[in-house]
Write a structure and sequence with these properties.
Shape: flat
Largest sheet: none
CATH class of the largest domain: Mainly Alpha
Strand content: under 5%
CATH topology of the largest domain: Helix Hairpins
Number of domains: 2
Number of helices: 15
Length: 351
């Protein structure tokens, strides 16, 4: 695991930071977070109402709070408690979760509404995403990809709103006499004893939630669409129109726009993931940072420079080969000249 070198003015701050960011410590913290999550699961299974008089789970809670507080203290000391600590969103999340745990542990006199802070214990498991790089990469990619799909979400919201407005106009008065035992509308009462039109499409908010139910595919045909269609069964035009109304919404929202949202989200995640350095490549990227700065900025200029370098290297190689050939030829000529001189000397001596 790559460690961040922090040099501070506090005594031993660099050593504390290095020790905290070591693999052993991070794995240990991750193990404690996982154990705390499993303890919460067991507690809600064995003692969901908190009636256990032995206080075993309370002891576990105190132990986890102390360990998490010490871990947070080491982290803050290693960063000097300055901007380097607070600019990291995961550190801020750790601080909030640990602070809430401390507040619950000391039982401060808070308003009843703040008792819901106790449920924040379940969110401690999210701290694993900071320490497990594969999980952290997924979360970071999702967070960065969400703004890119806002337009797709907006289109989906507009389509749902349009159908919600139309449904209020079409179906708000469906089975309005359902409470009358003598009226045929009584068969269109919902399982909660309300009239189908009023419950599902009485207002824009009710209609919007009904169409969200249709989007999820949960009992939309039986609970939402069929009562509106069968109410107008004596009028084939209204009945068929109602069927086409709901089917067109399902096709547009569930099969087209929702899949577009997923496709855009995956595309953004892939793009963001490709820009995120993978573990083991950080050092290589840091080592090549200076070389990247020295290269031409434009892609065309860089390609031209590389082609020029290849051309010059080719010329040097060709020149070197020619020099070797010329040297071999010169050596052969020298040997031949020496043989001619030796022959000439023998002839002079014989004469």
């Amino acid at each position: 695991m790559a460690t961040e070198e922090i040099k501070g003015n506090l005594p031993g701050q660099a050593k504390v930071s290095q020790a905290y960011q070591s693999t052993a410590v991070q794995v240990g913290v991750a193990f404690i977070i996982g154990a705390n999550f499993l303890t919460n699961i067991v507690e809600k299974e064995v003692d969901p109402f908190g009636d256990d008089d032995s206080g075993v789970f309370a002891v576990f809670g105190v132990v986890y709070n102390v360990l998490f507080t010490l871990e947070l203290g080491f982290n803050m000391y290693g960063h000097g408690g300055g901007k380097s600590f607070w600019k990291d969103g995961w550190n801020v999340f750790d601080f909030v979760v640990v602070s809430i745990g401390i507040i619950n542990m000391v039982n401060l006199p808070l308003p009843p509404a703040f008792s819901l802070l106790r449920m924040m214990r379940a969110f401690r498991v999210f701290r694993l995403f900071k320490r497990v790089k594969s999980l952290n990469k997924i979360i970071v990619s999702i967070v960065r990809a969400v703004p890119g799909v806002c337009n797709a979400f907006l289109i989906l919201a507009i389509v749902m709103s349009i159908y919600s407005i139309l449904a209020v106009e079409f179906y708000q008065n469906v089975a309005e006499n359902c409470q009358d035992p003598t009226s045929p509308d009584r068969v269109f009462r919902t399982s909660r004893g309300l009239c189908a039109g009023e419950e599902y499409f009485g207002t824009f908010s009710k209609s919007l939630y009904s169409f969200f139910q249709v989007l999820t595919g949960e009992s939309w045909s039986e609970a939402v669409a069929r009562p509106m269609i069968w109410y107008y069964i004596d009028d084939p035009i209204l009945a068929i129109g109602g069927g086409l109304f709901f089917c067109s919404y399902v096709i547009a929202s569930m099969y087209i726009i929702a899949n577009v949202v997923v496709a855009v989200l995956l595309d953004k995640m892939v793009d963001e993931g490709s820009d995120t350095p993978v573990e083991g490549e950080e050092g290589e990227e840091n080592g090549q940072a200076q070389d990247i700065k020295d290269k031409p900025e434009g892609p065309d200029e860089g390609d031209a420079a590389l082609e020029t370098i290849d051309t010059q290297v080719g010329k040097l190689s060709s020149f070197s080969c020619n020099m070797d050939k010329n040297l071999d030829t010169a050596k052969k000529d020298m040997v031949s000249l020496r043989e001619q001189l030796d022959l000439l000397l023998r002839l002079v001596q014989d004469a």
